[in-house]
Every structure is written in structure tokens, then in C-alpha cells.
Amino acid sequence: MTTIDHCNQPGLRPYLDAKQEMLNQLDKVSKCELVGLEQLLNRILADDIHSPIDVPSFANSAMDGYALSASTLVADTPLTLIGASLAGHPFTGRVAAGECVRIMTGAALPLGADSVVMQENCHLDAQLVSVSGTVTSGQNVRFPAEDLAQGELVFSAGTRINARVLAVLSSLGLEQLYVYRPLTVALLSTGDELRSPGQLLGPGDIYDSNRIALRAMLHSLGVKVIDYGIIKDQPDLIRQALVKAASETDAIITSGGVSVGDADYIKQILEEVGRIGFWKLAIKPGKPFAFGQINDCPFFGLPGNPVSAAVTFHLLVRPALAKLAGETLAAPVTLPAKTLMAFKKTPGRMDFQRAIVSTQADGSLGVIAAGAQSSGVFSAMAQANCLLHLEQDRGDVAEGERVTLELIDGLYW
Ligand SMILES: Nc1nc2c(c(=O)[nH]1)N[C@H]1C(S)=C(S)[C@@H](COP(=O)(O)OP(=O)(O)OC[C@H]3O[C@@H](n4cnc5c(N)ncnc54)[C@H](O)[C@@H]3O)O[C@H]1N2
Ligand code: MOO
Asked: Out of 3.90.105.10, 3.30.70.1560, 3.40.50.300, 3.20.20.70, which CATH number does the structure's domain 33-55+148-180 have?
């Protein structure tokens, strides 16, 4: 049985439509700059990267053992050890039939050798090496260009440089690259009730957690944040802050004041000093999210409820920032899972419920709620490792139903 949700007015904009409309209105703003390897973490590549070299650039051993020519090996005939090849110290001679060379992992394969036998399968006695088992040509050899060939496209422009990408760039010997300038984003909270952590709370006051959470998410994404702090619910102050922010930054993110309350001024001010792209989406949490522009500066008005602010940042602001920054963002990966309990869901809005997924004894994924699903309960957001994606028109979810989820562990938040 589903109940009527009076918050689900008709005419709310479906999530994917709104997201696409928003992305269509945004262009890359970032210029590129040449940056040294040490500073590349979390930056976005401005150029395609083609490998300047073969990786590896020479045939080398994947094991510690003995290098030999498999085709000339004679059963039960020991090989004469004629030298050693160590990483960084190649053997300069040639391996002939009946000979072998001691070789270490990563060392160059000597001329004449085509395979390596790991030392556990060899017996050394007075410079004679007996090999047990069969040996095939190419065994335990890492061939030139096996990883990357010279000229091959390694990363496309738009790739975010994480530690793994950085490792590959380093392995190519690249020390400076063109990347996009980091975005500068204005961040502000609105609300008379808000105090910064560390301040005393008066009656009806709460701590401003949205700005702290959003700032942390932005920093994780490599965005420069200009923190405009807490702005009181006074239209003049909000207007001033927004106009100033629009002249100083690449995008503006606010939280609070986007709904229909007597002190919710964001939408009205956005209409005065800029233009509204859309307001109110068929999503839960995050219904009153507002998107617009002030003098070409994109504006994202996040709802004040802390879960709504975090979830709309992820669903809408994150892809928008990627577009502005020149980053190619893959579509979110979703996984099927079985519910281990029932979930309440009212038709009308696409619901992103905070949940915990775990692997069950039979290897399948099982999911439970991370706690209460109210948009004010941020502790459940902090406990969650995934968001359940519950379609707009569906109702309650029964225990044992198959649902779709998006992992959020390990993301920027
Ligand atoms: N009559 C209606 N009322 C509401 C509707 C509606 O459609 N009709 N929508 C509800 C929904 S859904 C949401 S979400 C909220 C969003 O409201 P606002 O964006 O105007 O946010 P505020 O009213 O300013 O604050 C809501 C809530 O969040 C707390 N808050 C605000 N800022 C922060 C912050 N920086 N850190 C932590 N907590 C914050 C604030 O104290 C309120 O409790 O509107 C519903 N109402
Ligand atoms: O959409 Mo509000 O974010 O449900 O609480």
C-alpha cells in the first residue's frame, strides 16, 4: 500500500531531463596550462596522451630464474651458466645452445634467450643448471610494447588524473603536461539559524554542516573554493553576495532558502539578478534544487536539508562541474541487489535512498536502509555506502525485491 505524498506535486521535472537540459546549457570554462608531474594529481588532461615509447621498451624477465633458448633445450642435459642479467645491469653477451644466464625480475632478456625458467624449477650445481618440467618459448618473458606501444592513445583529453593515471604518465617519462585550470567555485550557506562549528548556539540555531561538507567534496574534486560563509536571510545581503560571486568565480553553489518559505529568497533573487533554468525536480531528496545563471556564471541552488544538499551535489552539481572543467565523466555504474528489508517509497519522485550494501553468503548483494530516510538525517548519509535508485513512478519496495544501487563509497565524499 502506498500513501499519498502531498510533497509530490504534478509538474515536477524528471531528473534525467533536468540534468540533460542543464548540461546542454553549460560549456567548458577552463583554459589549459602546462603543469609539472608533481602537481598533476586531480587535474584534468587537456590533451590526448599518446605513448612516446614502447612500454616495456625491451624484453625482460617476469621471474627470478634462468634465461635460455627453449628451442635448443635438450632433455636431461644441464646448461652451462655463463653470466647474469640484473635489472639495470643487462648481460652483454649472447646465450647459445646449451647455455643459460642467471636473470632477475625486470632484467633485460639476453640475446639468444627466448624464455625464463623460474629458479624454483632449476637446480644449480657447480655452474651447471638442470631444468625440470617443460619450457615453452616466451615463457616468463615480458615483451616490448606488451603494455603500451609507441604512438598508442593512452588517455584521452578529459581524463581526471588519479594516482593510477599518474603512475602510467610517469612510466612514459612525461614530466609536464597540459591540463585544465582548476575551477574556482563560490560557496555560501543561507540561513539566520546557522552558526559555524565552534560558535555558541542560541535558541533555534543549528550548526552549518552543508558548507563544510560541500567544501570538502569540492576540495576532493580539485576545485578551488571561495567561501562566502553564512549569509543571513536578508535579500540585500544574498543579492550582493551572488552578484559579487558571479564576477569572481566559475560557478556559484548555495545551500538553503530555495523552497517556498517566508525566508526562502534564493529563487526570487536569481530571477532578479540572473535567470532561472529550472526549479523543482521530481527527486527525493532534493526537490527544490534550482539551476540558473547570473551573468553567464552557472548557479546551483541546493536545498538546505543536509541530505538533499549532498545528494543534489552528487546528482547534478558534480556532472555540471565536470562539464565546466573539461572532464569526461562516465555514467554512474549501477548494480543489482536484493532488498533485505522493505523500503517505503511514494510514487511521484525518483528516490535516492541511503543504504548499506553487503555481499551475502551466496555471493549476491543484499541491501538494507542506512537509517531514517528523512532529508535532515545526515548520520544515515554518513553510514551509507550506496544510494538506492528507486524509479519515479514506483511505490513501496518489498523485502526480497531486486533493486538498483549506486556505490558511493570511495567517491569524493
Ligand atoms: N511548503 C513546502 N515546504 C517545503 C517544501 C515544499 O515543497 N513545500 N519542500 C521541502 C523540501 S523537499 C526541502 S528539501 C526543503 C528545502 O528547503 P530550503 O532549501 O528552503 O532550505 P531551508 O528552509 O533553508 O532549510 C531546510 C532545513 O535545512 C537546514 N539547513 C539549512 N542550511 C543548512 C546548513 N548549511 N547546514 C545544515 N542544515 C541546514 C535548515 O535549518 C532546515 O532545517 O524545504 C521543504 N519545505
Ligand atoms: O526534497 Mo526534500 O530534499 O525531500 O527534503
From this structure: 3.90.105.10
How many whole angstroms from 371 Cα to the centroid of ligand 2? 16
Q: pLDDT at position 147, please?
A: 97
Instruction: Please give the distance, rounded to the nearest whole angstrom, from the Cα atom of residue 305 to the centre of ligand 1.
Output: 5
Question: Which numbered ligand comes closest to the C-alpha of 194?
Answer: 1
Second CATH level (architecture) for the domain 334-407: Beta Barrel (2.40)
Exposed e or buried b per residue across 378-404, where buried means at least 16 C-beta atoms within 10 angstroms of its C-beta: bebbeebbbbbbbebeeeebeeeeebe
329 Cα to the center of ligand 2, angstroms: 26
Q: Is the CB of 284 under 6 A from ligand 2?
A: yes
Q: 284 CA distance to ligand 2 centroid (A)?
A: 5
- Pocket of ligand 1, candidates 258, 279, 305, 375: which has the most ligand atoms within 8 Å of its Cβ, to mutate? 305
- Going from the Cα of 302 to the center of ligand 2, the distance in angstroms, rounded, reads 10
CATH of the domain spanning 15-30+182-325: 3.40.980.10
- pLDDT tens by residue, 269-321: 999 999 999 999 999 999 999 999 999 999 999 999 999 999 999 999 999 99
How many residues are there in the chain? 413
CB 100 within 8 A of CB 80: yes
CA distance 409 to 413: 8
pTM for the predicted model, two decimal places: 0.93
- Measured between alpha carbons, how far is 356 from 388 in angstroms, rounded to an integer? 9
Whether the ipTM is more than 0.90: the answer is yes
Report the topology of domain 60-142. Answer: Molybdopterin biosynthesis moeA protein; domain 3 (2.170.190)
Instruction: Tell me how far CA of residue 8 lies from CA of 247, 263, 279, 288, in angstroms.
Output: 36, 22, 14, 11
Domain ranges of the chain: 15-30+182-325, 33-55+148-180, 60-142, 334-407
Note the pLDDT tens digit of each residue in 367-406: 999 999 999 999 999 999 999 999 999 999 999 999 999 9
Ligand 1 binding residues, C-beta < 6 A:
7, 189, 191, 193-194, 206, 208-211, 255-261, 264, 285, 287-288, 303-306, 308, 375-376
Torsion of CA 169, 170, 172, 173, to 10 degrees: 130
